[in-house]
TrEMBL record:
Belongs to the class I-like SAM-binding methyltransferase superfamily. MenG/UbiE family. The keyword Repeat does not apply. This is 2-methoxy-6-polyprenyl-1,4-benzoquinol methylase, mitochondrial. The lineage of its organism: Eukaryota, Metazoa, Ecdysozoa, Arthropoda, Hexapoda. InterPro entries: SAM-dependent_MTases_sf, UbiE/COQ5_MeTrFase, UbiE/COQ5_MeTrFase_CS. It is an enzyme of class 2 (transferase).
């Protein structure tokens, strides 16, 4: 009888010990999981933030949000520009290419140029000036959004801006991130970006990459919505921007939010003098800007010397 009681007691002790060991293991696992969650939360909380229009978002979120905006408006991009500028964007782009003044033999990288607006003007510009030495020119049209590039390539086909129709011009379409280009150093002698740089998360990285891929003597040019030089005109412009453009986007393109973001992104973009300093900071020289339409847009230019 005594033996039976002792055996049961030992069995009970073993069960109790197993229970305690199991509970300790569970606590350890829970502690490890909690630590991992805490580390993840800390990593998330320490992620840099930036602006998406007037919203403050994580940098990783902005990339996705901007991508979604242009994915949504890709097919109505020209309409969007017409609504935002009352059609004047076409004149601004003409002036922009005239200021670039390309010559035959130019190798151009047109960044954020998915729909081809600047590249097509560049091709047309060169087609209208003599080329007695039959120099071969080139343009790489690049954008982070493949939907925009698809629209541009269809437009190029309809305009006959394809290899068979351009014997003295080579054209390449490539999906690229302006902040980390895959092109080798000194690949181009001209770099343009029109109405695209304000949508990038790190403007300084875009400028640094532009500097890297340009050859010595190469020129950087940026056309971007900017800030008016007159307070009264700025107030009137703000009323039009916030009260008219988003509703017009909804009526004409069935899109309100993308237009609201684009209006807000313009206000968050650095003023002309500040942006000029940013361009100089990465190494560009002879940096200058020209206001168009009282500063609604500005052309910024710099050289890699």
């Amino acid at each position: 009888m005594s033996y039976t009681i002792n055996l049961k007691t030992i069995q009970a002790c073993n069960l109790l010990n197993n229970f305690r060991l199991t509970r300790l293991k569970c606590r350890k696992r829970m502690s490890t999981t909690t630590k991992k969650e805490s580390i993840n939360e800390q990593e998330t909380s320490t992620e840099e933030t930036t602006h998406f229009g007037f919203q403050t978002v994580k940098e990783s979120e902005k990339v996705q949000k901007v991508h979604k905006v242009f994915e949504d408006v890709a097919k109505s991009y020209d309409l969007m520009n017409d609504v935002m500028s009352i059609g004047i964007h076409r004149i601004w782009k003409d002036i922009f290419v005239e200021r670039l003044g390309p010559s035959h033999g130019t190798r151009l990288l047109d960044m954020a140029g998915g729909t081809g607006d600047i590249a097509f003007r560049y091709i047309k510009y060169l087609a209208n000036i003599p080329n007695p030495k039959n120099r071969q020119s080139h343009v790489t049209i690049s954008d982070i959004n493949q939907h925009m590039l698809d629209v541009g390539q269809k437009r190029a086909e309809s305009l006959k801006y394809i290899a068979q129709s351009l014997p003295q011009m080579s054209v390449e379409w490539k999906c690229e991130d302006a902040e980390k280009l895959t092109f080798p150093d000194d690949s181009f002698n001209a770099y343009t970006i029109a109405f695209g740089i304000r949508n990038c998360t790190h403007i300084d990285r875009v400028l640094s990459e532009a500097y890297r891929v340009l050859q010595p003597g190469g020129r950087f040019m940026c056309l971007e919505f900017s800030h008016l030089t007159n307070d009264v005109l700025q107030w009137l412009y703000d009323q039009y921007s916030f009260q008219v453009i988003p509703p017009m986007g909804q009526i004409l393109a069935g899109q309100w939010d993308p237009y609201q973001y684009l209006v807000e992104s313009i206000r968050k973009f650095p003023q002309q003098e500040e942006f000029k300093k940013m361009i100089s900071a990465v190494g560009f020289q002879m940096v200058q800007y020209e206001n168009l339409s009282f500063g609604v847009t500005s052309i910024h230019s710099g050289f890699k010397l």
